[in-house]
Write a structure and sequence with these properties.
Elements (H helix, E strand, L loop, with lengths): L9 H10 L1 H22 L4 E9 L24 H11 L2 H11 L14 H27 L7 H12 E5 L5 E8 L2 H23 L4 H30 L4 H40 L17 H21 L5 H89 L5 E5 L12 H26 L6 H8 L20 H12 L1
Antiparallel strand pairs: 1-3, 1-4, 2-3
Helix pairs in contact: 2-12, 4-6, 4-7, 8-11, 9-11, 10-11, 13-14
Length: 511
């Protein structure tokens, strides 16, 4: 059926509100009542405690002592990865479990005494009923298999994990820690205990727990290896009479060069003496000796003096041969003297030759010995260098391990004294009020929500209600004036015409 659209005025809207005032009042009261009941009796107050922690660059971020490599230079600055690591450590379940165990949060304490005032007592009792209902619902869900049964410790850890909020302050090395719990008197002590245990917990994580023992064992092993290498090197040097191979080789090379020079000189002197002796032996059989072929002798030498005497005797003999009457006795005596001196010179040259031969042989033996020592030293140079290199490697390893041992001991000492790179900027304080939206604000929101719900209910009820409530609407629907208004009932349905009655009234008028 055709439904004409009627213009709506403010009077019509007010009429609708008055017509629906009972339902709107019920919807408004129910909404506000439920919200107020939830806020006052069911909603648990949550209290917030906050603290701030400063993360500095310290020995925890350094490369562990057990890493046997050169450590790069650390650059001091904002290291967001370190700050994020501290955030993850603070939220660790192991740390929360330690807090629960230390404070005994998994052990239920005695229930608080009920308040004496009337309204707080009523509120307390209703909360107890609500809490019992929640426990019953949780138990039913556990029995149906929708939830797992948790131990008291797991429940306490889950409560801390749910109420803990850790964030890093932007562009800084500061971490903000917030804890939300329903108990005002416990939230700040739990937060402070969590931060204190976090400082000890993180040090234990960064500490090389077995570093000192490990490096003590490794250092002792390196010391034994170094001592064995030095002992082997000392025995090798003692057997080969080695002090410094490089210096010894240099010295032996110089001595061998000098010995070779002396040998060459002795050889030349020996060859010269052999040639002179050969010439002397050849002139000994000649009638007239050749003094010029005997070579040069120093004037002050023994042979030189004897040669001067031979020259004088030769001159005397020639003078005697030039006299008119030669004295054979003088000539014979001259020749005998000459021959005696000549034999002395030859004997001297033979003795000198033997001495020079022995000198040459001695020089050759010395050179041969030096060359043998040099060859033996060259043969021992490579093993000696290998032993020296082994000593140097063992010494370097020992010194490196000794340094790491000292660093590990220093780190362990700092751990014992609880020295770290985390400082507490702000401790948690007891909250002055509950966290979140205040109750008065929630009640105001509930009033606004009740009003909106009432308007929504009135709109929906009016939209789905097709009944006629006034003559004007009836005339608009049937297109004819209303003859009379017949009341059909009292109360909520008083003074109300049905659409069929209105249509009939209009039809009679047209007839």
């Amino acid at each position: 059926m055709y439904q004409p659209s009627l213009p709506t005025s403010l009077r019509d809207l007010v009429a609708v509100l008055f017509r629906r005032k009972a339902g709107m009042s019920i919807v408004f009261l129910v909404t506000v009542g439920v919200a107020a009941f939830y806020v006052i009796f069911m909603r648990d107050d949550v209290y917030e405690a906050s603290a701030k922690v400063l993360v500095k660059i310290g020995h925890e971020q350094a490369i562990p002592s057990t890493v046997r490599a050169e450590r790069p230079m650390m650059i001091i600055g904002q290291r967001y990865q370190d700050v994020n690591s501290e955030v993850e450590i603070l939220m660790s379940n192991d740390l929360l479990g330690r807090v629960v165990d230390k404070l005994g949060l998994d052990k239920p304490g005695p229930p608080p005494p009920p308040p004496q005032a009337l309204f707080p007592r009523i509120r307390h009792e209703i909360k107890q009923v609500v809490r019992s209902v929640k426990e019953w619902k949780n138990e039913m869900l556990i029995r149906l298999g929708f939830r797992l049964r948790l131990t008291p410790r797991e429940e306490a850890v889950a409560m801390l994990q749910k109420g803990l909020l850790v964030v890093s302050v932007r562009d800084s090395n500061v971490i903000a820690v917030k804890l939300y719990l329903p108990a005002r008197e416990f939230v700040s002590p739990i937060l402070n205990e969590l931060i204190d245990m976090y400082r000890d917990f993180r040090l234990g994580m960064f500490l090389d727990k077995q570093a000192v023992t490990f490096f003590e064992t490794e250092t002792q092993t390196a010391a034994d290896t170094l001592a064995a290498a030095e002992r082997e090197l000392h025995e090798f040097e003692a057997q080969g009479d080695i002090q410094s191979v490089s210096d010894q080789i240099k010295t032996l090379l110089q001595q061998a060069a000098d010995a070779r020079t002396e040998q060459e000189r002795a050889r030349i002197t020996l060859q010269t003496s052999e040639a002179r002796l050969t010439r002397f032996n050849a002139d000994a059989a000649a009638a007239e000796p050749n003094f010029a072929g005997w070579g040069e002798f120093p004037a002050d030498s023994f042979v030189g003096k004897l040669l001067l005497k031979l020259v004088e005797l030769e001159q005397q003999r020639r003078m005697l041969n030039l006299t008119p009457v030669a004295d054979s006795a003088l000539i014979t005596a001259n020749r005998e003297q000459f021959q005696d001196l000549f034999d002395v010179i030859v004997s001297h040259l033979r003795v000198a030759l033997e001495e020079q031969r022995r000198t040459f042989e001695t020089r050759s033996a010395v050179l041969l010995d030096l060359e043998g020592r040099l060859t033996a030293l060259h043969a021992r140079e490579m093993p000696w260098r290998m032993l020296r290199r082994a000593v140097q490697v063992a010494e370097t390893t020992y010194l490196s391990l000794q340094k790491r041992l000292e660093e590990a001991r220093a780190t362990s000492a700092m751990e014992e004294r609880k020295l770290g790179n985390v400082e507490i900027v702000e401790h948690g304080m007891a909250p002055l009020g509950s966290a979140g939206i205040r109750k008065l604000t929630l009640l105001g929101i509930a009033l606004a929500a009740g009003f909106v719900a009432a308007l929504a209910w009135a709109s929906l009820a009016e939209f789905f209600d097709h009944r006629v409530y006034d003559p004007q609407t009836a005339e608009a629907h049937v297109g004819a004036p209303v003859v009379a208004v017949v009341p059909v009932g009292r109360g909520r349905r008083g003074r109300m015409l049905s659409r069929e009655q209105t249509v009939l009234a209009g039809a009679r008028r047209r007839r």
